[in-house]
């Protein structure tokens, strides 16, 4: 066992997986039993229940497909069971991912001599919450006691940043994996690596190239009069074999000009057929171009969102197996006018970055790396990796009592090379110290921590040493999608805006819509947690729900009761939620339904039909308005719906992954249609903005505080900018702020609460608890008579909590039980 | 979706106040001070538990420090925060509490922040 630090990073990929270790200076790839650093993400369970992983399993993909599975990463977070016919067992996607992780963990043990207990595992930046949660579960099943998840583009950037000397400027990480595409815009300055933003497509990858080749090969077969259908279960075996051959030809064409796709003895619905066609590089490039164009469009969208003009990038780092293809490198480089970074291995960069990140997170892989030391115990806080040459080490004594001789009163830090020592520093009244240390660049720096007691005698400190690697500082990763709670009004209460730094935690007080009787089995208050950028909850993705059931309640919960809901996200985007009900002092923590929804082909097909009808109406309207942007956007929607149709056919043939892809595309289609709707609503929105400017100006001018008036001016400018740029989402956002400022100023009008109370009192007949609402109205009238404005405010706010939400809004708001 | 932090909170949570830095600080100052404060908060040290704002002392949390660091790393956001952090103080600012003593070497950021805001220690 070596004494150098050991950090493990794992790239758990759709097609292949890799492990790497970092010792503070250099990264080493971990080789598997076959001597390769790349392990195919393939699992086989034979009839006797024996499990095989990697290249040995991959060999059976075409000959024993019923017992050999790949690409399960794309199903992570779904309830989809994966069946192994021979053994008669079913496994969840995360259980299969755990097999791959277990295999990589064993490879680390074989090569390094340590079975790692902690590691960093990479996940796509646009993984949704259920998918990250499933990845953590896979790690737990594989025997890791602690893992951190890291977004793949950050891992790539970290590895590239560690390797490349000239680090300044804005750069792009273009990560085209087997099944997902991620692109990240990064900026490196003064050793700080910052993720400016990212974008991507959860269902775009090298696999799309494979399918394009398969479709081409099927078309070639059709010339021989052989009809092979991807959606037909009877042709599933033949299609699988063609796909494997297509994949091989694609890889070969990265080196040569033409390759043959030869599959003898194909079984096409009982008839035999020998497929033998030649694919040249030019045809391959033509077939792959639409998918590459899609990826470049995503890059442009990201650059545009962050105001990076053409030529504003210093380099692009290409990551992922498919990015080895010359056509990908050429088109990306040409169209984005940026040179690709050379000398980086696209296949292993993510794993290398994950290992480096394990160092920044202080995630030492050894189960008990630090031996127990007898001495004064000190809690320490310091950056395990830092770009700063003089970062701080903060420490605090765990116990400040004990024999005087064993309690330190002064501490000193000394670098192990003997070339730097801190001054002796007295501990403060909390038994703490804050010391800057001096680092040697690009090295792991070991420091000894020593202490002196009040008599000036040496005291042993536990831990006696600490290590800081000088390198890059990585900024907190930004959240890829806004997360909030769906309310009964179909609005979203935003907890974390897109781009918020992780980890993050936030608490808001919500109010229940209905009362729930203690013990009532079927009564449940549902708190839906959604992810997405839209104002209305139904357009956002439901990613979890916290349920408060009558059965678990200690007391009956009144309508309008307070619920303090805390949502917490860790650096890898894992979510946990906790609801405290102060009135009864009870806490609920179980987040239910943390799953990607099932994608039933028939449900998907009926959604397509409904979407096409909506598309028709919008198109007629767009033509009438001569709205060129909308017409163009709807054209793309139509083409996406055609893709969905093909995926539904494939799903009917048993391809569960295609069903998920169709589901996802439909969500994106919905968002596109919503954008067209917003565009159609633009004149109305613009009018609302003008009206809001008029009424708020007066109130803020007359009743606003000076800082509100300053903020108002800024907001009014932002409203103008959004109007000029015709940006409906931004205009809606600024309008909210404008109205809030206006409303806040209006609240200082002497009659404001009287008017608000009268409005609420007029609706009392519809309250969820009429008796309580009537009592509140009575209370309010008394306050009004006494001129007690404060009491009137309290009563009115309580009354608001009892007013009903429209049933339709509530249904759309994922049946939310809170407001 | 009208639940962004209160305007007052936004003013008091200006990243420069949270980190106890002046608007003209360097990028490395932000990283160094942020990392130090995160360490101190991680060890629950009282000397890091509050910060001064024009609205009086405010509790400092790890979340606030992380958000402040993220905001100041972004050039555009930093510019906006510099504007707010350099505004004159309110007409009748609350009396600031005594400045906590800081131990060890490193910048003493609070004193400069007060001077920039026009306050005088009594």
UniProtKB/TrEMBL annotation, chain A:
Keywords: ATP-binding, Nucleotide-binding. Belongs to the heat shock protein 70 family. The keyword Nucleotide-binding applies. It comes from Nannocystis punicea. InterPro entries: ATPase_NBD, Heat_shock_70_CS, HSP70_peptide-bd_sf, Hsp_70_fam. Gene3D superfamilies: 3.30.420.40, Actin, Chain A, domain 4, Substrate Binding Domain Of DNAk, Chain A, domain 1. It comes from the Bacteria. Pfam families: HSP70. PROSITE patterns: HSP70_1 (PS00297), HSP70_2 (PS00329), HSP70_3 (PS01036). This is Hsp70 family protein.
From TrEMBL, chain B:
Residues 87-100 have a biased composition (Pro residues). Residues 86-110 are annotated as: Disordered. Residues 101-110 have a biased composition (Low complexity). This is J domain-containing protein.
């Amino acid at each position: 066992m070596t004494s150098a630090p050991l950090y493990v990073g794992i790239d758990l990929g759709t097609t292949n997986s890799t492990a790497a270790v970092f010792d503070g200076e250099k990264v080493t790839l971990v080789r598997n039993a076959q001597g390769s650093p790349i392990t195919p993400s393939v699992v086989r369970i034979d009839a006797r229940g024996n499990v095989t992983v990697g290249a040995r399993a991959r060999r059976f993909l075409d000959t024993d497909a019923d017992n050999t599975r790949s690409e399960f990463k794309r199903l992570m977070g779904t309830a989809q069971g994966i069946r192994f016919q021979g053994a008669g067992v079913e496994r969840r996607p995360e259980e299969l991912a755990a097999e791959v992780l277990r295999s990589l963990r064993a490879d680390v043990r074989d090569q390094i001599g340590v079975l790692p207990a902690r590691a960093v595992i990479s996940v796509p930046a646009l993984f949704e919450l259920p998918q990250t949660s499933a990845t953590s579960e896979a790690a737990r099943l594989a025997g890791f006691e602690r893992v951190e998840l890291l977004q793949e583009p950050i891992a790539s950037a970290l590895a590239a940043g560690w390797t490349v000397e000239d680090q300044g400027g804005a750069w792009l990480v273009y990560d085209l994996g087997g099944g997902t595409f991620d692109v990240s815009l990064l900026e490196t300055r003064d050793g700080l690596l910052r993720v400016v933003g990212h974008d991507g497509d959860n269902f775009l990858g090298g696999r799309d190239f494979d399918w394009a080749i398969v479709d081409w090969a099927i078309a070639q077969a059709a010339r021989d009069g052989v009809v092979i259908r991807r959606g037909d279960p009877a042709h599933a075996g033949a299609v699988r074999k063609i796909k494997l051959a297509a994949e091989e030809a694609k890889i070969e064409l990265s080196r040569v000009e033409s390759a043959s796709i030869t599959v003898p003895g194909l079984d096409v619905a009982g008839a035999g057929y020998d497929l033998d066609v030649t694919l040249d590089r030019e045809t391959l490039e033509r077939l792959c171009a639409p998918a590459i164009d899609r990826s470049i469009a995503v890059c442009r969208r990201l650059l545009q969102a962050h105001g990076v003009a053409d030529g504003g990038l210093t380099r692009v780092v290409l990551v992922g197996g498919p990015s080895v293809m010359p056509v990908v490198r050429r088109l990306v480089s040409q169209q984005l006018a940026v040179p690709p970074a050379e000398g980086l291995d696209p296949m292993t960069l993510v794993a290398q970055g994950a290992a480096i990140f394990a160092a920044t997170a202080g995630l030492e892989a050894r189960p008990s790396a630090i031996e127990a030391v007898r001495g004064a115990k000190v809690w320490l806080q310091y950056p395990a990796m830092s770009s700063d040459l003089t970062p701080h080490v903060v420490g605090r004594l765990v116990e400040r009592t004990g024999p005087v001789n064993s309690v330190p009163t002064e501490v000193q830090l000394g670098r192990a090379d003997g070339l730097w020592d801190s001054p002796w520093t007295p501990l403060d009244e909390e038994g703490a110290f804050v010391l800057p240390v001096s680092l040697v660049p690009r090295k792991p720096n070991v420091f000894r921590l020593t202490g002196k007691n009040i008599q000036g005698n040496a005291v042993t400190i536990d831990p006696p040493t600490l290590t800081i690697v000088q390198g890059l500082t990585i900024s907190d990763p930004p959240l890829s999608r806004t997360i909030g709670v769906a309310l009964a009004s179909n609005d979203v209460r935003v907890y974390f805006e897109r781009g918020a730094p992780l980890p993050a935690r936030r608490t808001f007080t919500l109010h229940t819509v209905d009362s729930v009787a203690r013990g009532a089995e079927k009564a449940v208050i549902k708190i839906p947690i959604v992810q997405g950028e839209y104002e209305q909850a139904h357009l956002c993705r439901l990613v979890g729900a916290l349920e408060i059931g009558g059965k678990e309640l200690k007391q009956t919960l009144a309508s309008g009761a307070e619920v303090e809901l805390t949502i917490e996200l860790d650096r890898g985007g894992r979510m946990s939620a906790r609801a405290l009900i102060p009135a009864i002092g009870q806490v609920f923590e179980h987040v239910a339904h943390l799953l990607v929804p099932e994608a039933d082909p028939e449900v998907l097909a009926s959604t397509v039909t409904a979407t096409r009808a909506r598309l028709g109406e919008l198109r007629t309207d767009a033509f009438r308005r001569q709205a060129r942007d909308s017409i163009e956007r709807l054209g793309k929607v139509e083409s996406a719906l055609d893709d969905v149709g093909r995926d539904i056919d494939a799903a009917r043939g048993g391809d569960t992954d295609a069903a998920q892809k169709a589901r996802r595309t439909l969500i994106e289609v919905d968002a596109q249609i919503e954008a067209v709707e917003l565009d159609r609503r633009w004149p109305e929105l613009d009018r609302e903005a003008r009206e809001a400017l008029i009424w708020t100006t007066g109130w803020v001018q007359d009743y606003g505080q000076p800082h509100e008036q300053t903020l108002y001016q800024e907001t009014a400018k932002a409203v103008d900018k959004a109007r000029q740029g015709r940006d409906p989402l931004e205009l809606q956002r600024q309008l909210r702020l404008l109205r809030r400022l206006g409303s806040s100023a209006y609240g200082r009008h002497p009659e404001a609460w009287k008017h608000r109370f009268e409005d609420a009192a007029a609706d009392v007949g519809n309250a969820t608890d009429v008796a309580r609402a009537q009592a509140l109205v009575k209370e309010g009238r008394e306050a009004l008579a006494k001129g007690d404005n404060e009491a009137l405010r309290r009563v009115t706010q309580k009354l608001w909590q009892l007013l009903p939400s429209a049933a339709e809004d509530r249904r759309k708001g994922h049946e939310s039980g809170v407001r | 979706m009208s639940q962004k932090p209160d305007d007052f909170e936004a003013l008091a949570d200006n990243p420069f106040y949270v980190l106890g830095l002046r608007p003209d600080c360097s990028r490395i100052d932000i990283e160094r001070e942020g990392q130090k404060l995160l360490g101190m908060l991680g060890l629950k040290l009282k000397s890091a538990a509050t910060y001064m704002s024009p609205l009086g002392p405010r509790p400092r949390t790890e979340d606030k420090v992380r958000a402040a660091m993220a905001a100041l790393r972004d050039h555009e956001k930093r510019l906006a925060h510099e504007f707010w952090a350099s505004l004159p103080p309110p007409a009748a600012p609350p009396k600031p509490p005594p400045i906590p003593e800081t131990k060890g070497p490193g910048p003493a950021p609070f004193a400069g922040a007060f001077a920039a805001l026009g306050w005088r220690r009594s």
